């Protein structure tokens, strides 16, 4: 048996090794022709041994092939019978997976001193936003809840220094107390310093005025969810408005009676149910009826009862974005809440200045004097420091919670509507299978 003579001194690369075969007239057997520059690297790690035949020594010089004879080409990788199949470089490339490119690692942002490169103008975005807000204005919707006679309308009028809430007329014997809680919304446009605010005050007359106040918070909760539903339907419309009217309740001032003892069960039940759907700010009404010691003790007792019953009021702890917000809000939660306030829309002369206050036999209680009440803290909290945050928490937390629940319950569509806003027919009830 003759072996294939290979030159292992040269390491090269050859693809598709093909050896010509010519018939030998003397023996009648096939003989392999000469191969030009055959190297050992052409056959990957395995040497292919041909079948029993006579193989002349391979010439490493340029040997000429006989053109008159038509050689039958024999591929060493496939013609050898009974031997393992030889894999070419092309086959090997198909078996070996290509290395995956490494994902591009984002470069860390490099702080650039703008003074070295000149003024860019990034800080003008604040002025652009201010101009746009001044043109379009913004919405703010505030709800007041509490028993009659606690000064809800007076406080709201004092808060915005205008007649934004109508006072209830004096009650006479011919009028009947409403059997259910009514919802009255009054809208106003207030402009100050070129900024327009569309203010809506939602009053709830009749709350807590019944002998049986069971579930009296349900009409209020229903109204709040209806505003979420209205906004959701406008949002999912195909041809929706450029600016969706926002009637969602951003803030709910809950008025607590100045009993000086503890919260009523009605107070706890209301805040427990509605703290999940709206931003509740507890307020002690008519704080001038209590002494300073009574007021301080009552505030601590209210905070303790809210904590024991698991009631979270605004600002909620989990919504603090950074350490600065946490420090500021912790001070409000631990010291100011609930705000003990006094409301009045009447002006009096005090030390040559016109002030809002309540006149008593022993003097004038100034509404905006921190030594008399905490109205100024409430005003600064609701309007001057947290108004935008009230709107954002309403949109990003309460509305998103309602939106996710409604879309999941209705397969991604508003309840009762199809893709194009058409009312879907009711789904027929599936009959229960019989025992048979």
TrEMBL record:
Its GO CC terms are: cytoplasm
UniProt region (Disordered), positions on chain: 88-107
Molecular function as annotated in GO:
GTP binding
User: Pfam families this protein is in?
Assistant: Septin
Please classify the protein's predominant subcellular localization into one broad category. cytoplasm
The segment(s) forming the Septin-type G domain are: 136-409
Name where it's found: Cytoplasm
CDD domains under this entry?
CDC_Septin
Instruction: Write out the entry's keywords from A to Z.
Output: Cytoplasm, GTP-binding, Nucleotide-binding
Q: What does this protein do?
A: Filament-forming cytoskeletal GTPase. May play a role in cytokinesis.
Family the entry assigns? Belongs to the TRAFAC class TrmE-Era-EngA-EngB-Septin-like GTPase superfamily. Septin GTPase family.
Listed under subunit, the entry gives: Septins polymerize into heterooligomeric protein complexes that form filaments, and can associate with cellular membranes, actin filaments and microtubules. GTPase activity is required for filament formation.
Q: What is this protein called?
A: Neuronal-specific septin-3
The organism's taxonomy opens as: Eukaryota, Metazoa, Chordata, Craniata, Vertebrata
